Amino acid sequence: MFKDLLTRYRILFVFLSTVGCNGNDGPRPIALPGNIKIVEISFSSGVRFALDNISFRDSDVVFEITFDEPEFSPPGPIDGKTVLANEVVDVSFSFTVDGIQSDDAAVGISTGPGDTPFLTPPLLEGDATGLLIIIFEQSPVNDIGFSFSLDLLEQEITDAATIRAFDKDNNLLGTATADAIVPEGFLFPEGSLSIASEGKLSAVEKNDHFLETENIQINTYADWE
């Protein structure tokens, strides 16, 4: 029960700390000229990435993918996987390396950086040179955000993650990037990133509550160690 509550607060922290292009201390999300149908996520550095807490909004409803959904059991590659977010919305995933479909991004195989302020296993972990594509099958969404980490020990990275958003006609709506920092007491750089359609705020951005990361004390285990 405590872990579930902590995970929810972490998701809230991710959005409140990343309501901008820079996932750690930047401005609000850039305003896109239309709703989002497809996103591409890539990383600038590292050998491996870990990703968690994908959240998005359709109208006023916030949906979450935390990688403990039934579709991710048993653990395995995410390429070609379709997931029911909140048991309602179909979200499809594709992963490529050098333009070729790849199984080297999987859920539940590696714990990546372990349990951190931004991430909680199970995680999506994979080749940091690859491209993750997310498709909202039923209808475009207003915004999307996620948290991530890279396997660069005790390094901070500028423009560590990039998200590109496209509309239903595959027109590029906009691009945003986020830095990665190493939280005090942890080993690997992490951050979070969100992007939103024009005039839209994620529902959690309107919430006045805030969880200080300094109050989180967790024993960590990392595959990357």
Task: Kindly describe this structure.
- The structure is a single chain.
- The protein is mainly β.
- The protein has one domain.
- It is built from 1 helix and 15 strands.
- The strands form 2 sheets. Strands 1, 3, 4, 5, 9, 10, 12 and 15 form an 8-stranded mixed beta sheet that branches. Strands 2, 6, 7, 8, 11, 13 and 14 form a 7-stranded antiparallel beta sheet that branches.
- The radius of gyration is 16 Å and the shape is globular.
- The relative contact order is 0.27.
Précis, in short:
The chain is about 5% helix and about 40% strand.
Distance between the termini: 28 Å
Structural class designation: mainly beta
The DSSP helix count reads 1
Shape: globular
Uncertain residue ranges: 1-29, 199-221
Percent of residues in beta strands?
35-45%
Write down the Rg.
16 Å
Number of domains: 1
Largest sheet: 8 strands, mixed
Number of strands: 15
Mean pLDDT: 80
> Which range best describes the helical content: under 10%, 10-25%, 25-40%, 40-55%, 55-70% or over 70%?
under 10%
What string, H for helix and E for strand, traces the elements in order? HEEEEEEEEEEEEEEE
Oligomeric state, counting identical vs distinct chains: single chain
